[in-house]
Amino acid sequence: MNKANTGRFFEDFSLGQVLEHPIPRTITEADASLYLALTGNRFSLYCNKEFAFQLGYSKQPLDNMLVFHIAFGKTVNDISLNAVANLGYAEVEFLLPVFVGDTLSVVSEVIGLRENSNGKTGIVYVHSRAMNQEGYPVLSWKRWVMVHKKEKGMHNTYAVEPQLKNSVGFGALSIPEELNIQSYDDRYSGEAYRLDDYDNREWIDHKNGLTIDNSEHTMATKLYQNDAKVHFNNHQMENTPHQQRLVYGGHIISLCRNLTQNGLANAQWIAAINGGSHLNPSYAGDTIYAVSQVLKKQELGSGIGALRLRTLGFKNADWEELKPLYEKAVESKSKLSSDFVLDLDYTVLIPS
Amino acid sequence: MNKANTGRFFEDFSLGQVLEHPIPRTITEADASLYLALTGNRFSLYCNKEFAFQLGYSKQPLDNMLVFHIAFGKTVNDISLNAVANLGYAEVEFLLPVFVGDTLSVVSEVIGLRENSNGKTGIVYVHSRAMNQEGYPVLSWKRWVMVHKKEKGMHNTYAVEPQLKNSVGFGALSIPEELNIQSYDDRYSGEAYRLDDYDNREWIDHKNGLTIDNSEHTMATKLYQNDAKVHFNNHQMENTPHQQRLVYGGHIISLCRNLTQNGLANAQWIAAINGGSHLNPSYAGDTIYAVSQVLKKQELGSGIGALRLRTLGFKNADWEELKPLYEKAVESKSKLSSDFVLDLDYTVLIPS
Amino acid sequence: MNKANTGRFFEDFSLGQVLEHPIPRTITEADASLYLALTGNRFSLYCNKEFAFQLGYSKQPLDNMLVFHIAFGKTVNDISLNAVANLGYAEVEFLLPVFVGDTLSVVSEVIGLRENSNGKTGIVYVHSRAMNQEGYPVLSWKRWVMVHKKEKGMHNTYAVEPQLKNSVGFGALSIPEELNIQSYDDRYSGEAYRLDDYDNREWIDHKNGLTIDNSEHTMATKLYQNDAKVHFNNHQMENTPHQQRLVYGGHIISLCRNLTQNGLANAQWIAAINGGSHLNPSYAGDTIYAVSQVLKKQELGSGIGALRLRTLGFKNADWEELKPLYEKAVESKSKLSSDFVLDLDYTVLIPS
Q1: What distance in Å separates the CA atoms of residue B170 and residue B298, rounded to the nearest whole number?
Q2: Is residue C38 within 8 angstroms of chain A, CB to CB?
Q3: pLDDT in tens, B307-323
Q4: How far is CA C211 from CA A236, A237, B70, C285, C287, in A?
Q5: Which of A60, A216, B262, C188 is the most buried (most CB within 10 A)?
Q6: Which of A214, A229, A235 sits opposite C213 (nearest CB)?
Q7: Do residues C141 and C93 touch, judged by C-beta distance below 8 A?
Q8: Cross-chain CB nearest to A235 (options C28, C193, C211)
Q9: CATH of the domain at C125
Q10: Which domain holds residue A288?
C-alpha cells in the first residue's frame, strides 16, 4: 500500500461526513505582502497599518480574499483532488476579520451527493468553515464539485441536494465589530465615491489589464497550499486538451477583485460571495480585465452601506471590444463568449 | 461617467498644484525579504538585524531603493499614468532612515510646466516628498515626465521650468543620526575597501549579470503598487513597437545597484541620486550588468565618507565587450549604443 | 585592480584555512512564507504557530532546509564561485532549531585538497558551520567541490582527503530540546503514519509533480543570497552546453523534500543529511517528482523515532514509467538514466 494520498473519489464521500482538514495555517504579514505582489492588491486598508488603527482595528486586518484562498486551499486535498470541475460557490460569508498572526483551521461537512447519469462521476456538495485559533468561525462557504467515481455505475438510491440561497441577504452580513467607519478618510483610498454615488445597474469599466505569468500564479497557489495538480504539473497537463497548466480560479477572482479597486476603492470589505462561475480557463500569458455592475445597494446604518456587485472578468480584449458581444449574448440569452473567464456575484461594504 | 481613473493629461496639471497621493503604505519585513528575492540585494545592513543594532539603529532599516520605489509608486497614478516618457530625476534626497513598520505618505507639487511645440504633449515637473507616520519627511525628489494632451494645440502663454541642481552637494547629505560608524565591521560586508581605497575616476566592473524574467519584474512593480500599464498589460503592449511589457526603470536601477555590491560592499547607504536616465528599455530575458566610476569623494567627518558614483547599466554583453564602444562614444561625443540601459549619478555614504 | 570579487581558484585554498563568510543573515517570517510559496512546503510545523507552541517551542521554528539554503548561500562566494561541479555533501547535521528572527553567521574550514591529474582542476573539501546570534552552532556540514586552477600544472606534493562518515549515526542526532512530542497531534499533519507504520525497504511514491519556472528558482536562489552565476546569468549560460540557466541543486532538494510530505507528513524534522548527489541538471520547464525508500528506522526514546530515507528525484516522467528503468539499472549496477536528478540519503525525526 502506497502511503501517499491520491484523493477521495465519489464513493469515498457520505452524507453528513465531517472532514477536519489538516495543516492549519498561521497567516503572516508576509503572506499579505506576497498577496499584494502576486495579485496587485491596492485596497488601502490592507497595506496601511495606520489607516487600520484609525478605523478601530487593533491589529492589521487581512484581505478577505487572501483569507478565502488559504481556507479554500486546505479543503482541496480532501475534497477536490480528483475533481473534474469546480461547479460553483454559494453562501460565502466572511464572519469575522482575520488578523496578521491568526491561525485558521478548516472543517467541511458533506451536505449533498448526487450521481450523474453517465455513471462515471458524481456531484459532492460541501459546507466548509474556517475557525481562528480561538475557535471562532471567520468564514463559511458552500461549494459543489464534480468528482470521478472509482467504479462505473450507479450506486445510491437517491440524490440529496442542499437548498442553497441565491444570495446572502443584506441583513445577514457581518460587519466588523471594531470598525469605526466615522474615521474613514477618502484620501487614503484615493476615491471619493461612497454608497450614494453608485446607481443601481451602473457599470464600471475598471480599465486596467494584468497579464498572468506561470511563476506568479503557481506561487500564489503554493502560498495557499492548494495542491490541485492541474495548476502545478505541466508534465501531466501537456497531455490534456489544455496542453498546459491551468490558472487557479481563485487567482482570477483576486486579479479581478483587485482590478475593481479602480472605481471601487472604498469597497474595501468583501462581506459575502453570493455565487460565482469560472466561465473559461485562464493560462499563463492571458491578460485579465474586469468590469462591474451594481446589482443592488442598501444603507445598513451607522454610516455603512452594502453594494451587491457583479464583476465580469475577461481576457485579451478590452470592454469596448467585448461590450457588444456581451449585450448580444444577454439579448439572445446565449452563453458568453470564450473571452469571459469569471462571473462573480458578491457583496461589499462601503462607507455611506 | 465611468468611475475608474484614467490618469491626468497635460491640461489637468497647474503650477503650484498639490497632489496628495492615496494609499499610504506600511513597509514590512516581508517587503524587505521580497525586495531581496526579486532584486538580489546583498548589502549586509539590510538583511542583518544584529549588524543594524550594532551600528546604533534601534530597528531594522530598509534599503533606500526599496523606500524610493514604494514612494515613487504612489505618484504614478496621479502623475505618469499617461506619460509618454519619464524624462529624468534630480535632487533625490534620502532624509531619514525608514524602518520596518513605518508608513509612508507621499505628496507632490507641480513645479514646472512646458508645452512641446508639436502641440500634442507637454512636460510636467513635480517635486514629491514622502513622509513617515510621524509626519517627518524621509525622501524628497524631483522628476519630469512627458504627458499627452487631451486636445492638440498650444494652450499656455508661458513655460515655467524649475531650476534643478546638477547634484546634491556633499554638505547637504543627510547622515542617519543614530549611525555609530565606529562599530562598522568589514567582516559583515565581506570587503575591506573604505573611502580612501577608492580613487577619483576609478572604474569598477561588477562582473556578475542578472537575467530578468516577467514574473519577477512585474511582482516587484506590483509590490511597489506602481500601476503603470506598460509593465503589466501584455495585451496592450503587443501592439506597440516594444511588442511586449517594459521593465519598470526602477527595477533596473535596483538590479544595477545590487550588482554594485560586488566591489562597493561598504557603500551601504544611498544618500542622494543626483540624476539618472533610462537610456533604453529592458525586457524579460535581458541580462543586466553594471560598471561604476568614482566621480568624486570626500571625508564628511566622524568616520563617514561620501562617494559620488556613476553607474552604467547595460545588457546582454559584458564590460570587456562594451568598453571599447563606450570609449569611442565618449571620444566622439555621440550617444551610447543600445546595449546601455541606465546612466545613474548618485552619492553613497561609506566608512572612511 | 578591479575591486569586484571573482572567486577563489584552487591555488587560493590552503589546508586548515578558515573562511569567515560575510553577510550574516537574519531569517524572518517573510523568508518562511517565501519558502512556502517558492517550494510548495506543506509540512505543518512550519506554517502553524499554534502547533509549534503546542509542541513546546517558544517561537516559530524554521524549516531546516530553508536554514540549510541560507547558510549554504553564504559559502558560495568564497568557495564555489568558480566551481566546475558540486561533488557531494556529507555529515550535514542540524544541531539546534533556528527560529524566526535568528541571525546566522557561517564559517568554513578547508579540510582537504586534492589536485586532479589533468592539471586543470582540483578538489576542495570544506567543513562549514552556521552559528546563531548567540554563537551556538545550529548547522554543520561538509562538502567537496571541483574548482578551476588559475594555472595549469601540478603544484602540491601530496593530497589530503578527509575521512567522511557515510552517515550521521542515529545516536548522534540532535533532538530539539524544547520538543514535547507527547503533544503531537496527527490531525495537524493530516497523516496517521508514525515510526512503526514504516517498514524497512518500503517505497513511497509521492505522486505529485511540480513544474519549475525561471522566476521561481531564481527568486529562491536570490532569497538565499547564493550568487553562483550559473543560476542567474542566461547571457553567459546560453553559450554553454546547457544553453540556459541551471536550477540550483538545493532548490531541487527542497522540491523533492516538500513532495515527500505526501506520505511522510509526520517526518517534520530533517535531522541530518548523510549524503547527496545531483545526478543531472534541471532547467525551467522541468516537472519534478519524487519517491522515497526507508533505509533504516529506530526508536530513539521519549516517543521520538528516526527514519533514514533515500529520496530519488526525477523529472518529466512518473514513477510507474521509471521504476522498470530504475530496477534494471540497480540489477546491472549501471548509472541511473538521465531522468533522475537527485539521490538524497537523509535522516528525519518522526513520532513513534
Answers
A1: 8
A2: yes
A3: 999 999 999 999 999 99
A4: 10, 10, 32, 6, 4
A5: A216
A6: A214
A7: yes
A8: C211
A9: 3.10.129.10
A10: 14-151+176-351
**What does each C-alpha distance from B250 to B223, B341, C177, C194 come to in angstroms?**
12, 11, 47, 51
In chain C, whose CA is at the least distance from the CA of B204?
C2
SS3 B85: strand
**A248 has a chain C CB within 8 A of its CB:** no
Cβ atoms of A176 and A98 within 8 Å: the answer is no
Residue of A nearest to C38 (CA): A219
Q: Is residue B45 assigned to a domain?
A: yes
* CA-based torsion, B145, B151, B154, B155: positive or negative: negative
Q: Do A210 and B233 touch (CB under 8 A)?
A: yes
A60 to B26: CB separation less than 8 angstroms, yes or no = yes
Q: At what angle do helices C214-223 and C249-259 cross, to 10 degrees?
A: 100
- List the single residue in B with minimal CA-CA distance to A316: B235
Residue C134 lies in a domain: yes
* Low-confidence stretches of chain A (pLDDT beneath 70): 157
pLDDT (average), residues B236-257: 96
Residues B41-77 as b or e (16 or more Cβ within 10 Å = b): bbbbbbbbbebbeebebeebbbbbbbbbbbbbbbbbb
Q: Is A213's CB within 8 Å of C215's CB?
A: yes
Half-sphere exposure of B316 (CA within 13 A, CB side): 13
Domain count, chain A: 1
Residues (pLDDT < 50) of chain C are none
The reply to whether A256 touches chain B by the CB within 8 Å rule is no
Distance from CA of C345 to the nearest CA of B (A): 29
Contact state of A60 with B227 under an 8 Å Cβ cutoff = no
Question: Which residue of chain B has the CA closest to C34?
Answer: B34
Decide if C79 is inside a domain.
yes
pLDDT at A345: 98
Tell me the shortest Cα–Cα distance from C132 to chain A, in angstroms.
22
Whether C154 has its CB under 8 Å from any CB of chain B: the answer is no
Residues C30 and C120 in one domain: yes
Produce one character per residue of A270-300: b if its CB has 16 or more CB atoms within 10 Å, e if not.
bbbbbbbbbbbbbbbebbbbbbbebbebbeb
Q: What is the ipTM score, two decimals?
A: 0.95
CB contact under 8 A, B34 and A29: no
- Whether residues C23 and B211 touch (CB distance < 8 A) is answered with no
Residue B146 corresponds to which amino acid? M
CA pseudo-torsion sign C115, C116, C119, C122: negative
> What is the pLDDT, as a whole number, of residue C157?
67
Residue B129 forms beta bridges with which residues? B107, B140
Choose among B3, B77, B215: nearest Cβ to A216: B215
Tell me, what DSSP letter sits at residue A130?
E
Q: How far apart are CA C69 and CA B110, in angstroms?
A: 48
